Amino acid sequence: MSPTQVIFVLIYLLTVLLSATTIIPLSVAALVGALLTAWFGLQYEVFTYDQASGFVDVRLIALLLGIMIVVEVAQRSGLFRFGALYAVKVSKGSPGRLFVSICVISAVVSMFLSDPTAMLLIAAAIVTITKLLRYDPVPYFVSATMMINLGGTSTLIGSVSNMIIGVEAGISFTEFISYLAICEVALWGLTIFGLYMLFKSRLGEKKVLPEYDPWKSVEDKRIFYRSLLILIFLVVLFLVLGNLGVGPEAVALGCAILALALSGLDPAEIFKGLDWETIFFIIGFMFIVGGLEKTGILNNISTQLFQIVGNKPLEATISTLWFSGLASTLISNTAVALTFSRIIGASGLGSAATWSALILGTNLGGATTPLSGAVCMMAVGALKREGISMSFSEFTKAGLVTSVLQLGFASFYLIIRFRLGV
């Protein structure tokens, strides 16, 4: 590597290290890295000022903002809390049913909400129910964390990493579903079964639930129904996107404007609730990866990758799945998605199977240890606030079991789905 390439690799590694250790906030770490990238890039004439302005994909940022606004309006309407309370009511006090209900609703909610927001919502429901029924909250918290991380793997808007990969690979909303929906459903069932067997002895005994009406959690039914209709409208538009002649970011922003106009909520309050931390992290990290790409280092990695796996779809797919999955256990899966998507795109190995492997890997590796992601740390923190301590090994045991189970099944699925090695 040239001295210039070494500098940019060190900037990248510094950003990843700061992000992984949470010494400073994720967004600040990425923006510091972006500043260093800009300074050294312009000083060493790696890129021009005009070229640097193109490092940030405006389409991706627009897609993120649009989805976040629609979801924030839906959350304030009480739509997601209603769903969580209704799922608990369906359990009728059975610990097994309650466990499955919490797992399923956690995954479903995370298909629309960001993982930290979904964790806050589910954590509130778990604390209330386990206190009323005097259940051990640890199995429910840990399992909800695993399912929130898993939820939304099969949709373009299910996670930030999905949006990044979808935009980079040009995968449509319907293609996402066709590639991964069956795998997602199977993974839900497999993960819930594995977690149930792991925690079966700690779920508690059947008790009578107190009478409550989930509709009482909805303060304004007019906003509730409008939010529900806008979410349905958003999904329908994504499904027919190919006939509209516009990108997913246009649909997301259009529905966001519609949600703001029809909800009657204060836009300033909606904007305050958006996940600006993630948005600025992505902007900063995209800039770092863009600078790294200009040095030629990513092209070199892509060339070496192609030489290693050659024209072997099976090796390329499985190595992408496991390497991205393992990387996501240590660093932000957003960073993994941004880096790997550029490498795969430049390597010529970007088949439907490889992109699907990257989607699965970045999603499935994010809940292995309490330090794997924000949602894991939030779950541990929520337990601490309730005066319950959970050891690193206790969480990691469940995380390792589910991650290995999920990645193993995903390997099998990708081989069958894309007829690899045939």
Short précis:
The protein has one domain.
Query: Which residue ranges are poorly predicted, with pLDDT under 50 across at least 5 consecutive positions?
Result: none
Order of helices and strands: HHHHHHHHHHHHHHHHHHHH
Number of helices: 20
What's the multimeric state?
single chain
Distance between the termini: 38 Å
Number of domains: 1
Lay out the secondary structure:
Elements (H helix, E strand, L loop, with lengths): L2 H19 L4 H18 L5 H4 L5 H19 L2 H12 L4 H16 L4 H19 L3 H14 L9 H10 L3 H27 L21 H19 L8 H16 L3 H6 L3 H19 L2 H13 L3 H16 L4 H15 L4 H13 L9 H12 L6 H26 L5
Helix pairs in contact: 1-2, 1-14, 2-14, 4-9, 4-11, 4-12, 5-6, 5-7, 6-7, 6-8, 7-8, 7-19, 8-10, 8-19, 9-17, 9-18, 10-20, 11-12, 14-17, 15-17, 16-18, 16-20, 17-18, 18-20
Give a structural overview:
The protein is an all-alpha fold. It has one domain. The protein is built from 20 helices and no strands. The protein has helices at 3-21, 26-43, 49-52, 58-76, 79-90, 95-110, 115-133, 137-150, 160-169, 173-199, 221-239, 248-263, 267-272, 276-294, 297-309, 313-328, 333-347, 352-364, 374-385, 392-417. Helix 1 (3-21) runs antiparallel to helix 2, helix 4 (58-76) runs antiparallel to helix 9 and helix 7 (115-133) packs antiparallel against helix 8 (137-150). It starts with a helix and ends in a 5-residue tail after the last helix. The model has no long low-confidence stretch (mean pLDDT 82).
List keywords for this structure.
422 residues; mainly alpha; 20 helices
